[in-house]
Design goal:
447 residues, alpha/beta, 7-stranded mixed beta sheet, 19 helices
Length: 447
């Protein structure tokens, strides 16, 4: 019966584990049993299978195995444990996949509002970013918004200079969101003066997509999956059983667009400093498509220090007209928008407005005050009262009182760009706000 040797003299009612294995595996079927399996039978069957010394009664073992099979139980201790582990593993995987599954997308709550906002950047800002744009837009804002829309739609190079505090950065971030959510442009490079600003831009965009309830309600195909991440940038989510790719850490944002067509790359946004690593911006999606920036938005490409340095100005000018314009790839015409403030004569922003040097750049210089009041003498008196009060530790309330008493005369002839730009707690008008800024730092104000 054995492979070699004989079983003569074996007591079939007191077999060792080794002898049982010898018998069971000495058939034409080859190896059909393992030591772990036999030991499992002994553990499960106890005295029904073996004696106290672990000697197996072959006849009782056969009867026990038959009874186990008839009862529908698991006679196999070793393999049943393996199957148990498999079942537990499948259950855990199923629960994990269920927890990671995004599920059905919510319906668009306000389809008409969304449709109107997709056509208009101004409406998009007013409806979805009300906390940021709480004041009415000025005519200058509307002029810039219209130019940004045209540039994003048709490409080209647009530059505009606005006074500090006019909301340039907020408007550019809004334009980025509008471009990627509306689907006009899904690959955007947002470039700031340095790496710190680049990180802040990326965080601001992520926060808007992740926490803005109105955006989530009307653009669920982009925002809902990000919200399911629950703040964890590396969590692996599933949509209809397929993995969804998100990248929300660092200076690059990769968003998925979910829907009836399955999973698509919804948007790629790169954030970088103008003097940092901006070459080689490219992203290969799961479908193999390579994405490069279609819109390049440059926010404040110079600092106060670089504006005073001809060498730094020349270096940033070369980067802007060389590496930045080449980000879209050969033969591509990107939309390039540059916004900043002219700080010094012949600084970077000032040079971009030189049509002889840069005829391909088109844009606007926008001011804080377009016409100063006729009664400059009264404003000189106002500033003198304010300076005396501030030197004595006052708040300037006396100067505001003087302005209130002579406001009609002091406002005559004035034309400001943004009538709503002033502090309603301490100031009465935008022209008063302009004079207060002028008094704080005359040179910085005129720059």
């Amino acid at each position: 019966m054995g492979r070699s040797g004989s079983t003569a003299g074996w007591n079939l009612r007191r077999l060792t584990v080794r002898q049982v294995l010898w018998l069971l595996n000495s058939t034409p079927a080859g190896t059909v049993c393992t030591r772990r399996r036999v030991e499992g039978w002994i553990e499960r069957g106890g005295v029904q299978v073996a004696d106290a010394d672990g000697r197996i009664d072959l006849f009782r073992l056969a009867g026990w195995l038959w009874n186990q099979r008839q009862a529908g139980g698991e006679a196999d201790g070793g393999d049943s444990y393996e199957r148990h582990r498999e079942r537990v593993g499948r259950h855990k995987r199923s629960r994990s996949e269920s927890a990671r599954e995004i599920g059905d997308l919510p319906r668009v709550r306000r389809p008409r509002v969304r449709a109107a906002s997709e056509r208009s950047l101004e409406r998009f800002c007013r409806w979805y970013l009300t906390e940021t744009f709480s004041l009415p837009f000025s005519d200058d804002h509307r002029k810039v918004i219209a130019a940004i829309e045209r540039c994003i739609e048709g490409g080209g190079q647009f530059v505009y200079a606005m006074p500090r505090g006019s909301g340039k950065t907020s408007l550019l971030e809004a334009a980025t969101l509008w471009a990627i959510l509306s689907g006009r442009r899904r690959a955007v490079a947002l470039i700031g003066p340095d790496e710190q600003h680049a990180t802040e831009r990326a965080q601001n965009l992520r926060a808007a997509i992740e926490y803005n309830d109105r955006l989530a309600q009307d653009w669920p195909e982009v925002c809902h999956g990000v919200r399911c991440l629950r703040g964890v940038g590396q969590r692996r989510l599933l949509y209809r059983g397929k993995p969804v790719r998100y990248e929300l850490s660092g200076k690059r944002l990769v968003l998925a667009r979910l829907g009836d067509r399955g999973i698509e790359t919804g948007a790629v946004v790169w954030c970088a400093g103008v003097t940092g690593q901006i070459r080689g911006m490219a992203y290969r999606g799961p479908d193999g498509r390579v994405w490069r920036p279609q819109v390049i938005i440059v926010d404040d490409p110079q600092t106060d220090e670089s504006a005073r340095s001809p060498a730094q100005t020349a270096s940033r000018e070369a980067i802007l007209t060389g590496a930045v314009l080449g980000l879209a790839g050969p033969g591509k015409r990107p939309a390039v928008i540059v916004a900043g403030t002219v700080i010094e004569a012949d600084d970077l922003m000032d040079r971009l407005f030189d049509r002889e040097t840069h005829p391909d750049w088109h844009g606007e210089r926008l001011a804080l005050v377009y016409r100063w009041p006729d009664r400059g003498d009264l404003w000189d008196e106002y500033l003198a009262i304010r300076r005396r009060a501030l030197r004595r530790g006052g708040s300037g309330a006396a100067a505001t009182k003087f302005y209130r008493a002579h406001r009609e005369e002091m406002d005559r002839g004035a034309k400001v760009a943004w009538p709503e730009r002033y502090d309603p707690v301490t100031e009465l008008s935008a022209i008063q706000h302009a004079y207060n800024l002028r008094a704080r730092d005359e040179r910085a104000f005129w720059s």
